[in-house]
Amino acid sequence: MQADSAPPGEISDLVTVVDTLCKTPRVGWLQRGASDPESICAHILLTALLAGEVAVRLSAEGVDVDVDGVIAAAVVHDLAEAALGHPARSVRERLRWEDLEEEVFRREFPHLLELFKQYRYETDLTGRIVAFADKLATLVRACRYRRYGYATDDLIKSLYRKLAAYEEFSHILSEYVSRYCGSVS
Fold this sequence. Notes:
By secondary structure, the protein is mainly α. It has a single domain (14-181), classed as Hypothetical protein af1432 (Orthogonal Bundle). The protein contains 11 helices and no strands. The N and C termini lie far apart (49 Å).
């Protein structure tokens, strides 16, 4: 084992966390045949940027939003995947995935647990914005992969339905769909 790598299941330091997240592909894109799939790290960054844009936009509309808190929660929302990897949706559905993520946060990132829980359980506006941005980031990426010729139409439609449930952000959703997807049909 290299001196700078942690044993399986153990996170030694933040550099290891970042390196792991940046080198680990999101499995769903591999399953769809993407030759250069998005990494967990790229997804986290896109989610954080989208969450920041949404928060700033809502703030400009007069909504009381903790923009810094939104960005912080978005940055940590998938940190547990440094230890757990990014399994397929079918695997996540068979496991108590939320419990596994929370366990990793309690063990490895206890100081960030509350930020994670805001996102995971959508306990407040910050959590709802980050959960929305998380799905929006996947939708945006699915639309990009569709332009590259990968079969993502089913995912795009499914994500759009989930995002439409965030009625308070519907005006924002339509703008992002127009900008990145053209259409969802």
